[in-house]
Amino acid sequence: MKSAIQPPAWKALLPWPGPEAHKHARGRLGVVCGPPNRTGAARLAARAGLRVGAGVVTLLCPPASAPIVAPAVEAVMVHPFEGPQALVEASQAMNAVVIGPAAGLDQATIENVRALARTKAALVVDADALSIFEGRSQDLFDLLDTQDVLTPHEGEFQRLFPGLLDAGREAAALRAARTAGCIVVLKGRETLIAGPDGRIHSNDNGSPWLATAGTGDVLAGIIGGLIAQGMASVDAATAAAWIHAEAARGFGPGLIAEDLPDRLPAVLSGLYPG
Ligand SMILES: NC(=O)C1=CN([C@@H]2O[C@H](COP(=O)(O)OP(=O)(O)OC[C@H]3O[C@@H](n4cnc5c(N)ncnc54)[C@H](OP(=O)(O)O)[C@@H]3O)[C@@H](O)[C@H]2O)[C@@H](O)CC1
Ligand SMILES: Nc1ncnc2c1ncn2[C@@H]1O[C@H](COP(=O)(O)OP(=O)(O)O)[C@@H](O)[C@H]1O
């Protein structure tokens, strides 16, 4: 049975800093950056993760990308890594890592997902890190555990789960979550959040203004930022879908992805019990 998500369903689970908070206690989020000419998507995700409250957010960059990224961020940190083992080491202390936004459709992205699966960090797998597993999706599923999250749009979903959408979006999302053994966020006008336990949530407070490049990267960052603060992945994905859509609804015409992270304080203030 599909449950519609309204703020009260997950509002009590949102993480807020207590008086003793310090930045490391508020959660560490990593975002894997792509090649030097495609760093914007990861930067959008990182900024969103920081805005939603993660205490420390780090862009994990291939060495050639680091000098491009460093002057384009402020509070977000930059950590260059060379090769999968260095990514494991850089990610050991992370609570969550986002990989995929403009990561590159190449072997390096596969190796990086494999490396991250060896860490304790929960993974948010998006965009290129989904598409690169087309035709070999079981290789991806074998790396995941129940707290990991896949965030496909319908094109990416079709690449990982060919033909499944023919059963309808809801049945497809549920079957996908069971098959992958993790949370599946099937994005679109209505976004579905399905778990391997057979539960599914629907988010339909979206806005057509979200249909613009980079908004999915922001959603991945919000999910990662909430998981990093200790939310269970299914609750984080459910809350993130609502918060992301609400940020867009409040902005309206002219929205571009860059606007979304900076709308988060207004949305969060409306949810803050303090
Ligand atoms: N600032 C940056 O650097 C940004 C970088 N970005 C990066 O760009 C890369 C490409 O990402 P992408 O999502 O545009 O393309 P991709 O997944 O390769 O395939 C697109 C094809 O899939 C299909 N399709 C079907 N349903 C669909 C749906 N609901 N939504 C969308 N597509 C749907 C559709 O096929 P059609 O229906 O046209 O036959 C369409 O032609 C990726 O690395 C991403 O991270 C972006 O994040 C933006 C900001
Ligand atoms: N017509 C729409 N109504 C509501 N939400 C939409 C609509 N179109 C797209 N979205 C939302 O916008 C985001 C687009 O993500 P995605 O397709 O991954 O874009 P990108 O890869 O460019 O970041 C998703 O969260 C999706 O649910």
UniProtKB/TrEMBL annotation:
Homology family: Belongs to the NnrD/CARKD family.
Organism: Brevundimonas vitisensis
Positions that bind (6S)-NADPHX: A41, H153, D217
The protein's required cofactors: Mg(2+)
This protein's name: ADP-dependent (S)-NAD(P)H-hydrate dehydratase
Keyword Protein biosynthesis: no
Domain YjeF C-terminal: 6-271
Enzyme class: lyase
Keyword set includes DNA-binding: no
NCBIfam families: yjeF_cterm
Record function comment: Catalyzes the dehydration of the S-form of NAD(P)HX at the expense of ADP, which is converted to AMP. Together with NAD(P)HX epimerase, which catalyzes the epimerization of the S- and R-forms, the enzyme allows the repair of both epimers of NAD(P)HX, a damaged form of NAD(P)H that is a result of enzymatic or heat-dependent hydration.
Entry-linked InterPro entries: Carbohydrate_kinase_pred_CS, CARKD, Ribokinase-like
Reaction(s) the record says it catalyses: (6S)-NADPHX + ADP = AMP + phosphate + NADPH + H(+); (6S)-NADHX + ADP = AMP + phosphate + NADH + H(+)
Record's signal peptide: none
Family annotation (Gene3D superfamilies): 3.40.1190.20
Residues where AMP binds: K187, G188, R189, E190, T191, G216
Keyword annotations: ATP-binding, Lyase, NAD, NADP, Nucleotide-binding
EC number: 4.2.1.136
Name of encoding gene: nnrD
PANTHER family tied to this protein: ATP-DEPENDENT (S)-NAD(P)H-HYDRATE DEHYDRATASE, ATP-DEPENDENT (S)-NAD(P)H-HYDRATE DEHYDRATASE FAMILY MEMBER
Subunit composition and interactions: Homotetramer.
